[in-house]
Every structure is written in structure tokens, then in C-alpha cells.
UniProtKB/TrEMBL annotation:
InterPro entries: Alkaline_phosphatase_core_sf, Phosphodiest/P_Trfase. Pfam families: Phosphodiest (PF01663). The lineage of its organism: Eukaryota, Fungi, Dikarya, Basidiomycota, Agaricomycotina. PANTHER family: BIS(5'-ADENOSYL)-TRIPHOSPHATASE (PTHR10151:SF120), ECTONUCLEOTIDE PYROPHOSPHATASE/PHOSPHODIESTERASE (PTHR10151). GO terms for biological process: nucleoside triphosphate metabolic process. Transmembrane segments: none annotated. It comes from Suillus fuscotomentosus. GO terms for molecular function: nucleoside triphosphate diphosphatase activity; ribonucleoside triphosphate phosphatase activity. This is Nucleotide pyrophosphatase.
Length: 483
């Protein structure tokens, strides 16, 4: 590790229709005829009641045993507790307030929605998807940006190159699918950002690798095919990833027509998926969770900061590596005084960025204790873009993320439906902390809490799960004892 780093601051028929013919028989006494009618009616009524009970009883029955091996019935098949988590990349929390996502709002009213979910810093896709998987901050799991230099490997991690993105040695921590597989739980992974397997050699039972322009309809079909597998082959943890909203946000900005159209498409996907679970009578068995990794901010007219010009004013100062765009981690040639470079950048600051040594870095960033973090890390404020004279203004998107994780435009979503969500809503309302009709009843929370929630919903014991940066007991007030 470097000695010192500096940081510059996402039908039951009608009973009348099945009564027997009760024409009066003139050759029999009236009381005998009435008695026969009564007996016939009683027998038929008993049959109807018995048939109804037998039909609907299995739909609510579940095994009296406890733990992850308990079996639940949807009326035709047995299931184990199942969690289906879908990440919609770039889904900013306040997108849900635009009136363009009626189905997700309906899902949240029947289930539960948090006011927002706070991403880890930096608010980028790969760091946050790995935090969702592991419950770890960036400095703990090592994916400090989408692209970065590792001085030990002497190599650069590129999120879009298989040779690095699928090399498990880059990825620290234990993802939830590894924890589940170790416990004997079958898992399925549909394009979730991250490696195919971990450094310990564990992988999901089912895995569909990244494929660009993969239609939402095909993803829906893939997810339901896993749900419809026989009990002994069926995954209990299913993960899915959808990037179209993020692509629209980058290309045309968060307030664009393209983003609104993409919102409508992913909203319909959420409706179709939830509806399909309902048609299979699985809403009391399957917990479905919709999350995102970060938000999006408009960068159509940024103020440019040419970092090489600022740093280059120092005699003999040579920058060897850039990391972490839109932030910028700087590594200098041996013998360079990084403190002098930091002071020089601070002099330039003028409100465009803030500077501090590693010790007073805001604790909420959790972005200090990892050797992959460069000695100087520049974090632009919203509205500013870092570049150099070589890169210029080319390739900068209209919408972007990667900024301060407390900025409202960087906030992500959390919407859940299923047994957990009903219990969570009931629990919050019972404590007088929310109203049953509210679209969301949970306050905002950090995404490092998600790992522990999923493990709990799968009935994994504390001894079975990995150590995380999540808050101990965070979900106690939201998860009912029988969930």
C-alpha cells in the first residue's frame, strides 16, 4: 500500500344451479318428500364445501418445519422460499415520481418502496452492483471504479473487457450467490455485472453472460423458465440485470424523451414479471425486489476542467495513470511529491472540487483503505467534467453519474413485492411510522444492506453468511418472525 493517499472530493357455481330436481311426488307424503330434499341438499352442500377446501387448502399450506428447506404450495407444485432480484441500471429514485411508471407504483403500493436507496461511492455501475452482491463498501470489495489501475497486478481493470471483468482475482468479498450455493441453494444469474465465478471457484448453477441488445421479452422468458423448473432443479435465488434505462440516460440525459420511453418499457417489464408470478399463484412464496445501482444527472453543458494543465504546472510532475472517470485518480512518477500536487489542485479549486488528506475524507465515502485507490483522487462537483487536452470533450455523455453519493440525482430505487414486503409494510404501519396507503413507507437506506436482507429471506443462518458492511439488525423491524 502507498504510505499516504489523498482524496479530492447510485368457480364455485351458484348453489341454486346444482340443486337436484325437487318436483313434488304426489304418491309420497309431504314430510317424507321434504326429508329427502333436505338430505340430498345436505349431501351436495357437504361435497361443495369439501371440494372447495381441498382446492384452496394447499395454496396457503406450508410445511410446519422451519428453515430454508420448508416447502410451500401454489396449489399445483411445491416451492421453497425464492428471491428474485432485478437491477434496472440508472433508475434514478425520483423517476418514480414522473407519473410514467404506474405498474411499479402499483407494485409498491401492494408491497413496499423505500424513499430511495443510497449507492456507494463512487456512484458507478460495477462498484455498486458488487456492493449489492456482497454488502461491502468499495474500499472493501476492491472494485473502486469501472476502470482503474492496480499497482500490485500492474494491470488495468476494464469493465468491458472479458480478460479483466471475468477474472475473479479482481473481485473481493463473497457475493450472495456464492453464499447461497455454499449452503446448497440453487442460484441463477442473468447478466448481473460481475464475474462468472469467484476466486474460490464457486459459480451460479445457471448463468447467462452479458449480451448487448438482449430484449426485455427474452429476459422475462428466461426468468420464468427458471421459475417453472422442477423443484429439484429450480433456483431459489434469481438475479437479473437490465441496462436500457442507463443507456438512454447517458445518450440523451435524464430529462429526455428517450429516458421516459425507456421508463415505460421497464415499467411494463416489471408488470409482466409480477403478473406472471401472480398467475402462478406465487406471490405468497416469491419475494421480488427491484433495485438500481445509481441515478443520473444532466451533463449536456458541463464546465470543463483540464486536469493535465493544472497538474502540469508543477515542474517535473508526471502523471502515470488515470482511474475512475468521471472522477480521476492520479498516480505520479516515482519521487513525485503527491502532497504538493494536492495543494496545487486545491489552489485551483474555486468551488469546483474540494480537497483533503486521507484521514479527514468524509467517512460516508468509505473510500480510503484500499491500495487500488490512487494517491490523489479528484472528484468533480455536479456540473463539472474532468478531462485533459488529449481527450478533450470527445465521448462525454449527455447524462452521467459517478458523483457524490449523497446528491439526490445519484439516488437509486428499492421496490419489493411478496411476503417480505407485506410484512414490512404491516410492521411499519403498526409502529405508527407510515400509512398503509403511502407509496413508500421505508426511509432511505444504503445499498450495502441488501445482502443481509436476501440472506434472511432465504432463511440462511448468521453462521452461514459472509461478514459485510451492513448494519447489524437493520432488517429486524421490517422482517416479521415467520419470514
Amino acid at each position: 500500500m502507498p504510505d499516504k493517499r489523498h482524496v479530492l472530493l447510485l368457480n364455485v357455481d351458484d348453489i341454486d344451479a346444482i340443486q337436484p330436481d325437487v318436483k313434488e311426488q304426489p304418491t309420497r307424503p309431504a314430510h317424507s318428500h321434504k326429508r329427502k330434499r333436505f338430505v340430498e341438499f345436505s349431501v351436495l352442500l357437504s361435497l361443495i364445501i369439501t371440494t372447495t377446501i381441498l382446492e384452496f387448502w394447499p395454496r396457503t399450506r406450508h410445511d410446519t418445519s422451519t428453515g430454508r428447506d420448508s416447502l410451500y404450495s401454489n396449489g399445483t407444485h411445491e416451492f421453497k422460499k425464492t428471491v428474485l432480484m432485478i437491477s434496472i441500471d440508472g433508475f434514478r429514485a425520483d423517476y418514480l415520481d414522473r407519473g410514467l411508471t404506474p405498474h411499479l407504483l402499483d407494485i409498491s403500493r401492494e408491497g413496499v418502496r423505500a424513499k430511495y436507496m443510497q449507492p456507494v461511492f463512487p456512484t458507478l455501475t460495477f462498484p455498486n452492483h458488487w456492493s449489492l452482491m456482497t454488502g461491502l463498501y468499495t474500499e472493501s470489495h476492491g472494485i473502486i471504479a469501472n476502470n482503474f489501475w492496480d499497482p500490485v497486478f500492474r494491470d488495468t481493470f476494464h469493465f468491458d473487457r472479458v480478460e479483466s471483468a471475468q477474472n475473479p482475482s479482481w473481485w473481493l468479498g463473497e457475493p450472495m450467490w456464492e453464499t447461497a450455493e455454499r449452503a446448497g441453494i440453487i442460484t441463477a444469474n442473468l447478466m448481473w455485472p460481475g464475474p462468472w465465478s469467484t476466486s474460490s471457484g464457486v459459480n451460479s448453477t445457471y448463468f447467462l453472460p452479458w449480451e448487448d441488445n438482449y430484449a426485455l421479452e427474452k429476459k422475462l422468458s428466461n426468468l420464468l423458465e427458471w421459475i417453472d423448473l422442477p423443484l429439484e432443479e429450480r433456483p431459489q435465488l434469481i438475479l437479473g440485470y437490465e441496462p436500457s434505462l442507463d443507456h438512454a440516460g447517458h445518450t440523451t440525459g435524464p430529462m429526455s424523451k428517450a429516458v421516459n420511453m425507456s421508463l415505460a418499457a421497464v415499467d411494463l417489464f416489471a408488470r409482466n414479471l409480477t403478473q406472471a408470478l401472480g398467475e402462478r399463484n406465487l406471490t405468497h412464496i416469491v419475494d421480488i425486489i427491484f433495485v438500481s445501482d445509481h441515478g443520473m444527472t444532466d451533463m449536456s453543458h458541463p464546465t470543463w476542467i483540464y486536469v493535465d494543465e493544472i497538474v502540469g504546472e508543477l515542474d517535473g510532475l508526471l502523471t502515470l495513470h488515470y482511474s475512475g472517470w468521471p472522477s480521476m485518480g492520479l498516480r505520479f512518477a516515482p519521487g513525485t511529491n503527491a502532497t504538493e500536487a494536492l495543494e496545487h489542485l486545491n489552489t485551483f479549486n474555486y468551488g469546483k472540487m474540494s480537497a483533503c488528506t486521507v484521514e479527514p475524507v468524509p467517512e460516508r465515502y468509505h473510500f480510503s483503505h484500499n491500495y487500488r485507490i490512487a494517491p490523489v483522487w479528484i472528484v468533480p462537483r455536479i456540473g463539472y467534467a474532468l478531462t485533459d487536452r488529449l481527450g478533450g470533450k470527445d465521448g462525454v455523455p449527455t447524462g452521467n453519474h459517478g458523483y457524490d453519493n449523497e446528491d439526490p440525482s445519484m439516488r437509486a430505487i428499492f421496490v419489493a413485492h411478496g411476503p417480505f414486503s407485506r410484512g414490512a409494510r404491516a410492521s411499519v404501519v403498526a409502529r405508527g411510522e407510515g400509512d398503509a396507503t403511502e407509496e413508500y413507507v421505508m426511509p432511505g437506506f444504503q445499498n450495502v444492506e441488501i445482502y443481509n436482507l436476501v440472506m434472511r429471506l432465504l432463511s440462511l443462518d448468521a453462521t452461514d453468511i459472509a461478514t459485510t458492511n451492513g448494519t447489524a439488525g437493520f432488517w429486524d423491524k421490517f422482517v416479521l418472525p415467520d419470514v
